[in-house]
From TrEMBL:
InterPro entries: Dabb, Dimeric_a/b-barrel. PANTHER family: BLL2683 PROTEIN, STRESS-RESPONSE A_B BARREL DOMAIN-CONTAINING PROTEIN. Pfam families: Dabb. Residues 2-98 form the Stress-response A/B barrel domain. It comes from Treponema bryantii. It comes from the Bacteria. This is Stress responsive A/B Barrel Domain.
């Protein structure tokens, strides 16, 4: 099993815009479950953020294997979500991939 964790910081925008963007990211990425081979679980954390946080939201996903993660990164449905709902609104991205 492989974990794929992403932390994003959003670009400067109003609080209401941030909430809308976070909801779109959550809906888009969580909607990939059952569509991408090898994707076991996917959750986007958008609420409950404490003041000590340095990121705005987190992706917590699990894959059957490292190969499945590589395929996910270029899967057309994932690329479409990333290009339309994530990349235009994020200022920074941190990634941690590891085997469990």
């Amino acid at each position: 099993m492989v974990k794929h964790i992403i932390l994003w910081t959003l670009k400067e925008m109003s609080d209401s815009e941030k909430e809308s963007v976070k909801a779109g990211i959550k809906e888009g990425l969580e909607g990939l479950k059952g569509k991408v081979p090898g994707l076991v679980d996917i959750k986007v954390i958008t609420s409950g953020r404490l003041a000590s946080s340095t990121a705005d939201l987190m992706l917590d996903s699990s894959f059957e294997s490292e190969e499945a993660l590589k395929e996910y990164s270029k899967h057309p449905e994932h690329v479409a979500v990333a290009d339309s709902k994530v990349r235009p609104y994020t200022a920074s991205r941190s990634c941690l991939d590891f085997e469990v």
